[in-house]
Each structure stands twice: as structure tokens, then as C-alpha cells.
Amino acid sequence: MSKPANKPGLxxxxxxxxxxxxxxxxxxxxxxxxxxxPDLGAKPKNPSHWLDPVRRRLEITGGRAFHYxxxxxxxxxxxxxxxxxxxxxxxxxxxxxxxxLAIARALADKxxxxxxFHQGSYLDPLxxxxxxxxxxxxxxxxxxxxxxxxxxxLLAHLTADGLLVMHLYGRDLDRGKFVIREIxxxxxxxxxxIDRRFALYRELVAHRRPSILKRFLxxxxxxxxxxxxxAFYKARRRRVESxxxxxxxxxxxxxxxxxDHFCHPLENVYNVRDVQKLAEEAGLDVxxxxxxxxxxxxxxxxxxxxxxxxxxxxxxxxxxxxLDVTARSVLVIGRRAPVH
Length: 340
What we know:
alpha/beta; seven-stranded mixed sheet; 14 helices; about 45% helix; globular; 3 domains
């Protein structure tokens, strides 16, 4: 079950920081006060895609309590998933948004897991005792006004051999979304004018896309049947999970996910070179890239492999990104960079 929450006031959220960073973070906080998602009906997320490789890197001494922190936990669907997968861990979570945390606490109670939730900013010193063996931050750092400062602060709260796993928006994966965002920002710059922006979005989608019927007439019967089947299973899965649909979905209403995709006040996107810059500024030693830049030798022509082996880490990761025919988000495992 969720543990009693610490509910600091605005002075605790802001700490000693002043100026543009505070104002930007306050805008993000207000945004999630209005639009927390997903809701309580969503299933907790399965963390195996990142937890399995993290487990292989962790050295956990028998009998020692293992401490995990979810930084920017939102409505708790990631951290509750971790708590279900690792019931022996001591788990904490922090987020700016009290309405999001209310959903997170209810979700923890629903699944009978114990999580120590706090309201606050992880740009400030964290309100927890001790250090963490593992910190996860998913879909959050790219919404902060100071991503290097956020990562630097999280690294400072790791144990000496602790790990950070971090998800960020991918520049190529979300390129189309940010084109639409910029169009909407030009025509209706007021992010709080949700209904007006959504009406513009629907008109834009209708103008840009041919009708579903026309698209199906252009497809071969086999491809059309496959498209119907895939759409059915996707819709069924979403109904069951009530999870956040991607920006590419055809939204009929200005739902929480649509608002998050197209009205968020602060978003950053990353390719491998951007991650490299972030890591260097924050003092993060990236050990493995699980999304963009993931090392997959089958993408290389056979004769390139000796040259590839001689490249530095970031050139190899960028080459992998450029050779990948799919677009991915960023998911990295790292640690505090050693001090030389």
C-alpha cells in the first residue's frame, strides 16, 4: 500500500532556485494539475524491457535492502509495475503534481504494494533518507527546464555503484508531432485554449489525410485485411490497458493523452548527439542505450565491423541510430561518471 505522503508546500517544491527555471517548472506543475494521466483504470506498466538489462548490471548483496526511486512518477503506473516485479525492494517516488500522486497512491493501494510517495521537484535536494541503488525516470526529464541539472541532482542521490535508467523523447520518433505542435502554436498560441486547439487539430488532420474509405480502396485485399485486424487488436488492447496512446492516433476528443502531446508547455527531444551533450553536462556515464543508438551489428555491412570496433562509444551509437530504419525513443542505463 502507499505510505503516508509528505506534502510540502510551494517553497519546498521550488527550494532556493529562482528565475526562469522556477517559472517554467511552475507551468509544468500547473499543466499536470489540470491533466494527469493515465487514469486509475490503466494497468501498471511491465518494466521488463529495461529492468532485465538493469538487473544484469546490478550487484545486490544478500540481506541488504535495495532502494529504488521513480523520479517524476506521474500517476504511478511505472513505479507500481516495478513494485509488483520487485516486491522485496524499498521503493520511493516523487512528482510535482498532487493530482497525479493521488492517482498513484490509489493505484498502489489497488495493487497492494508499498511505495513512499512525495510531492516535490527533483531539481531540488530529494526529501528521502539515504541514497538509492537505482533511480528510474521515464517521460519526465525532457519536461524539466534544466535537464542537465535534473540528471546531475539524481546522480548525486545514487550509491557509489548505483545506476540511473532514463527515458527521453526521441527526435526522429516524435518529429511529426512537433510539426503539428508548431502549426497549432502559430495559429493558436494559447496552450490553455484546449477546445480551440483541438478543433484546429481535427481540421488539420481531416485536411491532410484522405478518407479511410479511399485509403482502403487503394490497398490490396490482403493488406486491407491485415490493417483491419491490426486496428482491432490495437483498439482492444487500449481499451483493456487504458494506457497513453501515441500522438499518431486519430483522436476524436481532447483526452488527457492528446493534451499532453499537443498542449504541453515544456518538451525537449533528443537524438544520440543530444544525449551525448546532456550526459557530458550532467556527469552521466552512459553504459548502454536500449532505444536509439542500441548496438545491433546486423545493421552494419559485414566489411564495416572492424572500423566500427575502433570508433568511440558515441560515434558507434550515432551510426547505429542513423542505420536504424525504425524511429525510437531514448532509453539509457548510466551511472555517475568517474572523477579523474
